[in-house]
């Protein structure tokens, strides 16, 4: 984190020092050719290889196309038991406002409703394509009376769902019908067997009425405010276009005018798509990844589409289902794993413009203290397991919403570390950008308060070590003293605070306390199976969560690069995934990333294969009872960990790729240190890499290129560099500079283009 330090290896002194140490040349010989720039391929054709296809009607949200813009979302699938197609209409800001019933009921996200497209004739077939590059659903519905050609988008910058339908003569009479949903927490559905709080009732029904050329469904809320769905249909030539929009307001009731304005001012479908397409084209081009496993490559790009459909910096932090709310017992934002995994992929893919976590924790920081017990509010912070979009939980109990735990008290689930773990995401955003404002204004003050909360409870034991009273390791179900989950977060938090204080030049009075904690904190509990849940609490049953392994991943405190820890990491991973029963999809993304940290690419790929074969749905969605969005997104992070790792101040290129990935191409992969990395692997060997520095931070590379190296700038001139004792390469790279690294005698063209597939691949969706 000490980004002000720069290693300067200038002139003859650097050359003498490097030669004397036997560390290789400090100055490379000049390259004979300047590297070209730009992408040497057709982006439209490349992204089209990842398009989802449907040749039969999807029957559920786990099978159908999905559209979104971080706020408004729509899933498309057959209307159950009817000759119709459902277009759901949901919105991430639409929630209840009754905190007396908790985040899972009184502050829960509320369903809005759906449209049905009802043809004249019986549906006999579909031929659909979700065009990723343009973020648009296209295709036809064939019926006994003719066909309906459709195009649909949720506009990326406007709160509008637009569906253009061109019917043949026999289908001119098709119709759209809106079905308002009951405005009640989905958790109240008897199917989930979750008792509603006493006194909790549904909001009153929506009122549907016509307003001039449009229609509105106005949904009042008992706590004040409302959400309104407006729609109108416009006929132009042979096309009928449905425009729909949702607006929310609280405590005011001002949504009708805004929703109507959105549908009445929307342009014709063609012009409407121009800005939409431009945004999406620019979005994809911020980075590039190509691997020879075409189905997994398609999955990667579908998740980038899903991410930008579900997330915006200014939008609510993704709840468990993103914008596609379906019937679920999880109608809130979950902070003991879901949020963290949802946003990890933004860093490597160079999409920090979607970082809602850092924004929300900053914006609603007052709630992070106000929901603690009164003795701790003045100097501490924490986040409940479940919250609404403003980070509120409301009343706390085991069914309505889970509070911040108090160590040593047997509350239903006394989780303490969820805020500290969420702040690790903020730290990742800082490390990948080196934005000092984020460090100074958000991360440091909030992490200081999060660790302060722990400091109230850490106490010395007879062994002279600081110990933590019993807390709860997420998902395991048993309280444990010296809980591994919390000890790992305390260690990471204290180290990060010390680093941040040095970087910010802050003489914080708590520095000695943080140092003391690091020096005397109790060790992790281990046995012959590996890491325990906590002191005296072994991992004795199937456990889907890797809460007891955070020190290995993602915190990288205990690493494979420490030989003394390898056996412990290996047996901990094997023991954890060896318990079948409770394992779920994100178990396998975590196992893949841990395997990648062990440099075992084939093992990491095998875990991702299990994920795809056992858990991922035809449209790449995922469910545990209800829809949960984090697992497919976190699988992309696992892939990124196989391609590039940048923890501990070292950028590692292709550290854990499987043997079958002989060719790989990446461009502008963002790493810690605010570097953008581009590289190519050919025939199982790294051919070249380019690194661009945005902040002038120390640049240490592990390129994996055999033989003597050449390091040049963008004009082919030699750059100053040295080989470190462990073989890593340190390059003198200032702010805004590039360095190209390749094997001496080679002449790479530095072009970034898709790699050849290993074989054919079936598209995602229902292609047959």
TrEMBL record:
Residues 1-30 form the signal peptide. Keywords: Signal. GO terms for molecular function: alpha-L-fucosidase activity. Residues 305-623 form the Glycosyl hydrolase family 95 catalytic domain. GO terms for biological process: carbohydrate metabolic process. It comes from the Bacteria. This is Tat pathway signal sequence domain protein.
